[in-house]
Amino acid sequence: AFRRQNIERVAIVDDGYDPPSQQGLSERDAAAFRTHLQDAVEEDDPEGISGQLPEFGIVSLEEMQVRASHDAGLRDLWHAYRSVDRTSPLGMLLHRLFATFEVDRNDKLRALEGLERMIQDVCGRRPATFDSQAQPKDLAGHDLIFLDFYLEAPPANGEARVPETDTVSRQRSVQFLKDLVDIPGNPMPLVMLISSAASAEDIPEFRRHANILASAVQFMPKKQVEDDVLRAGMELQELVERRQEVTALSNLIAMWQTGVREASDELMHLVRDLDLPDYGYLYKFRLTNERVPLAHYLVWLLNGYLSDSVERRLHAATATKLVGSL
Questions:
Q1: How far apart are CA 144 and CA 104, in angstroms?
Q2: How confident is the model at residue 298, as a pLDDT?
Q3: Of 20-34, 73-87, 268-282, the least confident
Q4: CA atoms within 13 A of residue 127's CA, in its CB half-sphere
Q5: Measured between alpha carbons, how far is 307 from 14 in angstroms, rounded to an integer?
Q6: Which helix (H) or strand (E) holds 301?
Q7: CA 214 – CA 209 distance, rounded (Å)
Q8: Residue 321's pLDDT is what?
Q9: Lowest CB count within 10 Å: 184, 192, 235, 240, which one?
Q10: Residue 44 half-sphere exposure, CB side, CA atoms within 13 Å?
Q11: How far is Cα 69 from Cα 315, in angstroms, rounded to an integer?
Q12: How far apart are CA 164 and CA 162, in angstroms?
């Protein structure tokens, strides 16, 4: 199905991929890390931690203290922790800082890793992964997107991440998808909404607010990837098989929207050009004898002109071809 529908670029957008932040760390872990690091500074580094720092672009233990005090630096330390030998002095120090965060993050990632494996099995490559800092433009050009139904906001400029309600997180996902669909020239992607808390009943409202075709969106519980990978695969195949129809419908609707917009602009120019004598002429010589109210006549006239103008702009042959491809 992926080959037949030319599904090549696949991505997952989920806050489970978010790096650590000041507010996301255990206070106990952070205190233990600061104490051990300060002891190392004051005692001339008896464990030899500083010898490993240049490999990760860190000059000294003092610089490490500074980096641990803000989110951007924490991300650097997190990347170092993920690649360093955990039994080394630096690995054991960073473990003090990230132990609890890593356990919590791994819980969130378990279903996502299963999803990554499933995607790799069916299309031969791992998907691109994006955290909550992703922008819609980063996803432009992707054929299939797995989007977290509740996408929490990333911390801004090192500020604390404020706990959000499900409504706010859902609205962020809705806006993310709406902005992605509205990118000029970006083909309509297929979207699989994923969540540990939402259900299929929540999807219709989500779709309407995101301005996306119903046929382009489906829902998959994250737990399903772990509990019933066969069913998850079948639902993914069902979505992928719609690709050609979704593209045809999307192109037809885009063509119609362009026609409506251009026809409306043209009509408004004409309406603005009408002066009071023009309306007087219509009323006196066209409507008096027929006893038709001017307002009713104008509404009928404008509606008719707009409809005719839209039809002229729509390429009938192209539209027929698009609908015929369904």
A1: 28
A2: 85
A3: 268-282
A4: 25
A5: 44
A6: helix 294-313
A7: 11
A8: 64
A9: 184
A10: 0
A11: 60
A12: 6
